[in-house]
Predict the structure.
Amino acid sequence: MSNSPQSSLGGARFSHVIGVGGIGTGTLIELDGDETLGRTESRMGRLLEARDYCKLHIVEHYIAVLLGEPDGNFCRVMAVGNVGRDDAGIALMREMADAGIDLGNVRVEPNCKTLFSVSFLYPDKSGGNITIKNSAAGELDQTQLEKCRRELEAAGPRAIALCLPEVPLEARIEFLRIATECGSFRIASFATGEMDAVRSLNLLSQVDLLAINRDEAASLGALKVQGNEKLAALDACLQVATLANPHIRLIVSAGAEGVDVFDQGAWSHHAAVPTEVVSSAGAGDALLGGVIAGIVQGLPLIRRTYEHKSQHTSESAIDLGLLVAAFSLTSTHTIHPGFTTQALRRFAALKSCSLAGEDPSQLYAASTSLKESTADSRHDSGKP
């Protein structure tokens, strides 16, 4: 079976999104002061009345809700992971099922606690998180991965294999290997602290679309960015990524500054949708959820023309992702409890000026030439 991705995402249709990653809950703390938290620093903060969730749940929630309306293009959204046999795990599985996520490959671990994280926010609404390692999420094993192989094999190139952090890297490596053998379209994210392993193990040779933030991009490129050195981070990231896989697509998010996308040999910049920010926690995951939902529906990753064709319609997967991310910013929770397709349409109508055609001047050629990979990237760009 061919394991090559589609050479162009526009018009592609997918029947399955099968995701591996963390399923858990957490708490949010708003820190006092804008200064970056120091290594040995103690600081006061305010506990927020907000519900926090982990990456796989957030991303797949937005995908499942966006694809939930019957339109003749049914896509099965499946989670692969573990929760503990505790109140948090039971509640999370109920919420995921209510959103339309298939939990057939989620296992309840009787002797482990559900994954838990602490997210912290600075006054400007940027921030980060700390996630525990010794949780049910760490019990993801080969049996579960082999079980989801059957789904990936049956769907073939119509499956998206979604590989996200907060579960052991070894399990994600195996999942990418299985997805590659099954011919899936492979979408992945990695944490900053994992980038050394990503480079040394050549993991990007098995990734079609990499979604990371700017700090993670700099880490992938083994670059210590001082201040706002955007182009340096993008260039370093691109060199590593395209050496591993000349056909890879990149999404690099930067909060209020928007998103940079590398696709078909060029970078393009896409501005964030202006909105009043309540909390930025979970916005990057909402962005990815919207992008994947757009890809499933056959939207191109980015627009290649600049005419404003439809006032309230997203014309690309990135357009949709940016709109979903902006909507998520209006809630204290990392999954907006009021998110529905109808609510998103109303939000889009209010923000229609932000969905106008992008400025052609924002397209800029890659600042580094693409290098031919010496490794077997397992791609055939001629596949329709």
